[in-house]
# Entry
Amino acid sequence: MSAERASRAEYCVVACADAWRGDGEILASPMGTVPAIGARLAKLTFSPDLLLTDGEALLIGDVPAVGAAARTTEGWLPYRKHLAMAAGGRRHVMMGASQLDRFGNQNISCVGDWERPDRQLLGVRGAPLNTLNNPTSYWVPQHSKRVFVERVDMVCGVGNDRAAAAGPSATRFHQLRRVVTDLAVLDFTGAEGAMALRSVHPGVSVDQVREATGFALAAPEEVPRTREPTPQELRLIRESLDPGVLREREVRT
# Structure
C-alpha cells in the first residue's frame, strides 16, 4: 500500500472519527476495532477534549496503539459513575448492530420470533439506555440486507419512529447521529428521521449501497464520496494507532 493511497478500512476509520467531531468534553464509547481507532484519531486531531476509556474503565490520557499494553492513565471511572454518566447523556456511543431498520431501530438480541428465535445473540444489554440518553452512532463492518432490514426482529436500540411515538420522555435526549459501514456513511436526515445516504466510500457506487440495503434508502441527487484521510491522519493510523493493521481484519475488500 502506498503512503498516499488509503485503504477502505482507513476510510472507515476516518468516517468513524468524524462522528465525534465537535462533541467537546464527552466520553467516547467505541465498540469495535475500527471505531476504537477512529475515536483515538479524533482525540489526536480535531477533538482533543474527548475522554476515552478502555475495558477497565480507566480514562486514557494518550492514545496507544490498539491492543498495546503500554498506556498512560489520566483517571479512573468507577463502574457506578460510568452508569451515572451514561444516564446523564455525557457520552457518545458507537454501537454495533445485528439488524437496523430505516428509522434506526437496532437489534442485537435475537434473530427470528422472540418466543422461539432462530439465533440467540448478545441480548438487549445497554442499548435502550444508550439510545434514549446519549448521542448514538452505529458501526456495521459488513453492509448487507441481513443487517439493514425492513423491520428488526426485536428492538434493542430505540429508533426515531419509536421515540417519537413514545413522546417527550423518549425524545428529550434521543439523538441518532450516523451509521458507518464498509460501503458508506449514513445519517438520519430522511423524512421523519429515516436513514439517508450521506457519502459512499471510494470504489463504491450508490446502486451498490442500495442493493445491499433491505429498504428504500433516501439519498441526495449527488452523493459525495467519503472524505480523504489527511497525510497526518494516515501517518497516525499506520504508525501510532494501528501498526498491527488490525483494521484490515474488520474491513475486507
The first strand starts at residue 27 and ends at 30.
